[in-house]
Amino acid sequence: MRLIRGALAGVLVAGLLAGCGRGGSVPASPGPSASPGPSASPGPSASPAAVTERTLTLANGTDRPLPTLVVQPASEGRHPVVVFSHGYTRTPDDYLPLLRTWAAAGFIVVAPTFPHSARGQQQLDDQDIVNQPGDNAAVLSAVLALDTAPGDPLSGRIDRDRVAAAGHSLGGMTTVGMFTKHRDARLKAGIVLAGGQWPFGVGYTGAPAPILFVHGRADSVVKFEGATEAYDPLPWPKALLDLPAGDHLRPYLGPGKDFDAVAAATTDFLRWSLLGDEKARARLAADAGQAGKVEDRLSGTGKG
């Protein structure tokens, strides 16, 4: 995608900071084996006791700290994993309503804070996106290892064969990178929210994995054409949620009808792509409601 350089250096910084919602962060735990915090307040479709939250102290090498928010279902059993990448000048905490919705639906969500693209970092640099797919790979490896860590809240809870990547804006581009130049073979599905192919290109590689793109026509930061530049060349099962009134932030941070559509469609996409739930696939068009429409070019391949 030909992302406007001024957008990331100027408009993205000014626009996203001006549109910041919550400014706080989830308190950090001492380390990967820390106990989960109290039950989180839920997203729009979650019950109060449906999820728990904590932050893991992770890193990718000595110079890339990656404090990672984990939002997991309170229910027993094994659950798929979704690695979520935040947008430029955002933090995982900004997306909690959406992440909690996914967790309440039965998915373990892990969301690192990147060292050079998160709000509050001393050195913001959009070019550091080239390192973020590797950061996600390191986080995913560390989290999957907790499945066999005695006493950890994730011990015996992870479905290691059902993993997806998702992200918003710069994080959506990071997600594209995890299916192209930095293909992570563990990924079985992807969700790209207001993102595109910059700077990784559209050389999709590896086993086919269904990907859902979501983009608003009123997005002035990453234009709608940015989504289609990544979506159109994708040869795998795919779908596009088109939001005519959607801007760059509200459909993903909430509240509002666009957010409700995104929460419903992404949750059903995860249910289908990772769990093989055909009823969830059938709901995708209706999930858009009056907020937009879904182009469904998914097929029977690539499911969990």
Automatic annotation (TrEMBL):
- The membrane-spanning stretches of this chain are none
Q: Which PROSITE patterns match?
A: PROKAR_LIPOPROTEIN (PS51257)
The annotated regions of Low complexity compositional bias extend over 42-51
Biased composition annotated in UniProt, kind: Pro residues: 29-41
Database matches in Pfam families: Chlorophyllase (PF07224)
What domain of life does the native source organism fall in? Bacteria
Tell me which InterPro entries the record gives: AB_hydrolase_fold, Chlorophyllase-like
Region (Disordered) residue ranges read: 24-51
What protein does this entry describe? Answer: Chlorophyllase-like protein
